[in-house]
Amino acid sequence: MTLKTYRGKSMAEALAEVKKDLGKDAVILHTRTYKVGGVLGIGSQTMVEITASDGTVPSRAPGHRTRTTRRVKGAPRSVPAVVPSDGEPNVDAARLYGEPARSRLDETPLADPRQPVMAGAVRTPGVVPRHRPSEADHLDHDRQTPRAVETHRPVARRGGGADDGASFETTSFDPAAFDPASFDGGRGEGFRPGLENLEPKATVLRAPPPEAKDLATRVRVAPVDDVARESLEDEIASIKRMVGHVLQNTRPKSSGAVGAMPDALFEEHLKLIDHDVEDGLADLLTGVVRDELTATELADRSVVRQTLLRVLADRLRVAGTGIAAGMQADGRPRTVALIGPTGVGKTTTVAKLAATLKLRHGHRVGLITCDTYRIAAVEQLRTYANIIGVPVKVAMGPEEVHAAAASLTDVDVVLVDTAGRSQRDRERLDELGIALRRLHPHETHMVLAANIGERVMRQAAERFSALEPSHVMLTKLDEAVTLGAIFNVLQDVGRPVSYVTTGQEVPDHIELAHADRLARLLLDGGGAM
For 60-191, where are the alpha helices, taking DSSP H only? Predict the structure, then answer.
C-alpha cells in the first residue's frame, strides 16, 4: 500500500489531484485543513490536505492466521492424528485447523458421520461439508434415531511392514439395523449381515480455504456514472434558468432575452449568497452586471468579476477622508464622539485614532471618557493617553461632558469615548442622547463589529441610528468570516463608512475605509484580508 499526501486550496481541488494520480480506486485515509501565509493570521490562506493510498491490500504471508478464524464448537484444538489410506497428510484438514500442509492429498469421498458406512471404508477428517448442522439439528436427530456406533481398529498398511506404522479403519453401524440373532458371540463377524443391507450416503464437499477479511473501514472516491452526471447537470441548468428569470423580473428595464444565467456570472452570484448577502441584493447586483455586459463579455470570468466589484463598490458609501482636525467655525476644536453597543471596541478605536492623529499627522489631541460603568475602562484609556502623550478628561455623567470638552481648548481634535449601551436598554440610550446633545459633537461615529450576527447588528444599528450618527465605523474585520451581513445592514443605515479596524495593535490596525477594498473582502470572504 502506497501512501501519498495531496494539497489544494479546496476539497474539490485536492480530490481532483487524488483521482488524477491514483485513479478512481483511491482510498482516502485522512483529511485536514490548515492556514498558510499571512501575518498573525491576517492574510492567510486555507489549504486542504488529503492522505490517500492506491487501494491495494498486501497479501498475507503463508500460514498467517486471521483474527476472523474461529474454532468450531466441539472441534479439537489440533489436527486429528488420522491420515488417509494412502498415508499422506490431509491438506484441507491442516488448512482448516491453521496448520501448514506438508504434502498434497487426492480428493477422497467422505461419508456423513451420522450415516453408517460399509466395512473397510476409511474416513477422512479433512473434508468438511459446506452446511454445518446446528445444535438443534443434532438434538432433533438424537431424539429420532439412536446414535451410530463407531469402532476403530488398526489395520496393516498395504505394501508395508510392521515398522511402517498402522492406519485406522473406522466402521459405523446403526443400532436400529442390528439383528441380535446374527450376533455370534462377540467375534464381530455377526455384524456384517446387518451392515450389508445399509447403503452409504456420502456427500463429497470440500471446504474452501478461509479468506482474509479486511476489517478496516475503507472510503473510496465514488465514481459518478453518466446518469447521475446528466441529472446533476440538468439540475444546475434548471437553477441557472430560474435565477435568470428572477433577474429578468427584478430588472424591468432589461431588454435581454430570458434564459439561463451565464456560468461566470452564476458562480459570482453563488459567492454572494455564500457570503451571506441577501438574496434580493444578490439578484439586483448580478442583474446590473448582466445588463451592462455583452454575451461575449459575460463569458469572460475576469470581466464579470471586475464589473461586479465595481458594482459592489458603487453600493458602498465611504467618507473617503479622515477627521478634519483644527478649530471649527464655532470656535471649538473638532469634536468626534464614538457610540455603539457594548464590546464593539470603542475604547481601543479611540486610542488608535489618537495615536494616528498625533504620531502620524502631528495634531494635538485631547481625550474624554464617559465610560465609568465598565471596570478599569478609565484606567485603560488613561494608560493609552500616557503612552501617546495626550491629556484625558473623565466625565462622570451627562452634565459633566460639556465642562470636560470646554477644558480642552488648546487641542486640534477632541475624541470622546462613550459608555457601551445595550440596544435594548432604552433608559441608558436616552441618557446617552442627553450627553450627545450637551456635547454637540461635530461628528458622531456609530461603531459596529463585523463579527456579530446580522440580526444583532441590524437591531443595534436601528436603535443607535436614533441618535443621528454621521458616520459608521467597522471594527474587527479580521474576525469576520464573511462581510455579507455588514453589507446588508449598510444598505439600510445609509451612513458612510469612515474607518475600519483589522486587529488589536495600536495604532497600526486602523485605516480609512475604501470602497474597492471592502468590495473585494465582500466577494472573496473575510479571510482574504
Answer: 91-96, 135-144
> Which of 39-53, 134-148, 252-266, 269-283 comes out lowest in average pLDDT?
134-148
> Rounded CA gap, 382 and 398, in Å?
20
Q: What is the mean predicted confidence (pLDDT) over 514-520? A: 94
In a domain, 425, yes or no: yes
The answer to the question of residue 13 being in a domain is yes
Burial status of residue 255 (CB atoms within 10 A of its CB: 0-12, 13-18, 19 or more): exposed
Interacting residues of 217 by C-beta distance below 8 A, sequence separation 6+: none
CA distances for 332 relative to 361, 402, 439, 442, angstroms: 19, 12, 11, 10
How far is residue 440's CA from residue 446's CA, in Å, rounded to a whole number? 15
CA distance 176 to 518: 99
Phi-psi region of 525 (alpha: psi -120 to 50; beta: other; left: phi over 0): left
Burial class (CB in 10 A: 0-12, 13-18, 19+), 202: middle
**344 & 230 share domain:** no
Report d(CA 6, CA 1) in Å as an integer: 16
Contacts of 408 (CB under 8 A, 6+ apart): 333, 366, 368, 391, 393, 414
CA–CA distance, 456 with 467 (Å, rounded to integer): 18
* pTM of the shown model: 0.53
Q: Are residues 467 and 421 in the same domain?
A: yes
Residues 472 and 339: their CA atoms lie apart, in Å, by 10
Give yes or no: residues 339 and 473 share one domain: yes
Give the integer Cα–Cα distance in Å for 54 and 18. Answer: 9
Measured CA to CA, the distance from residue 23 to residue 66 in angstroms comes to: 29
Domain extent, residue 261, equals 226-315
Confidence band for 421, pLDDT divided at 50, 70 and 90: confident
Same domain? 305 vs 189: no
Whether residues 339 and 468 share a domain: the answer is: yes
The distance from CA 485 to its chain's CA centroid, rounded to whole angstroms, is: 23
Q: Residue 197 is which amino acid?
A: N
386's CB contacts (< 8 A; 6+ apart) are none
DSSP characters for 71-86? PPTT--SS--S---TT
pLDDT at 415: 96
Count of CB atoms situated within 10 Å of the CB of 164: 12
Domain total in the chain: 4
> Is residue 187 predicted with pLDDT exceeding 90?
no
The C-alpha cell of 355 is what? 495615536
Query: Are 246 and 394 contained in the same domain?
Result: no
Q: Are residues 385 and 506 in the same domain?
A: yes
For the cut 80, the answer to whether the pLDDT of residue 254 exceeds it is: no
- Which amino acid does the sequence have at 473? M
